[in-house]
Amino acid sequence: MATYAHPDRHLLRAKDLADARYFDPLDVNDLAGAAGLSRAHFSREFRRAFGESPHAYLLTRRLERAAALLRGTDRSVADICFSVGLRSVGSFTTSFTRTFGASPAAYRAAHPPAASLAIVPTCVLRFYGRPERRTFREDSPGGRG
Hints:
By secondary structure, the chain is an all-alpha fold. It has one domain: Homeodomain-like (Arc Repressor Mutant, subunit A, Orthogonal Bundle), CATH 1.10.10.60. It has nine helices and no strands. The protein has helices spanning 9-20, 28-35, 39-50, 54-72, 77-83, 89-100, 104-109, 114-117, 122-129. The longest helix has 19 residues, at 54-72. It is elongated and about 85 Å long.
């Protein structure tokens, strides 16, 4: 007996690929291949199912990850651009500004620096917060204060 598969299951496979491998040099052809559809048919069906083109979806995933890296790291804008799978810092800056309403540098400036978000374990704080030679009656030459 054949089982029924929702027709959008193939599209979800392509969407999952974009979510998982946004940093790779993926394009619409790769996503269409994951869905098992021709590029043109895939683009129409993806837009119908998700309300945006596959290219726009992939770009949005990349920009969202870039925004998280800008908020949480001190990496350079160029490094972030390339690490999310984009190839041009100029295009990245334009797309980022259009999406978030601020350039990557301005976006980062509007959020606290990554160093202020660093979580330091309590044991490390205690070790470095301890006085260096402060003991009770043991620091005097005779052992008694």
